[in-house]
Amino acid sequence: MIRPATPDDVPTILRLIRDLAEYERALPEAKATEGDLREHLFGAEPKVFAHVAEHQGEVVGFALWFLSFSTWIGRHGIYLEDLYVAPAARGGGHGKALLTELARIADERGYGRVEWAVLNWNTPAIGFYESLGARPQDEWTVYRLTGDALTDTARS
Prior knowledge:
Its EC number is 2.3.-.-. This protein has 5 helices and 5 strands; from the N terminus they run E-H-H-E-E-E-H-E-H-H.
């Protein structure tokens, strides 16, 4: 079952985020707290959204997303920040169900795309995404300002 996340799901979502960070070899970078998630998912004006996958009453996966905008097509899209299914629940269709729900939302609301990034070495995820018809955007390189570089640029 796929459903929108509720405030009660926050501890589980945070645990899954940490599991994802560990899988992606970046656990020290996962600094989000339950308070951060509560504020941004369920505060006065949420700009980030989450859906969870349940199996036998237990949350086994999540998709965390926000709206993007394409100036070229003149429409919003969904940017999928994280999609994660616990290893024990993989192969049960939960990842596909989460992506299907995001595609349904995008289609229903007239959004132009659903997009996300995947690590180059994550071949299981790449194979899964391509099996759904997703295609890599190889001509684009993602850049990021963070930490001291972000602060230095902001203050220059």
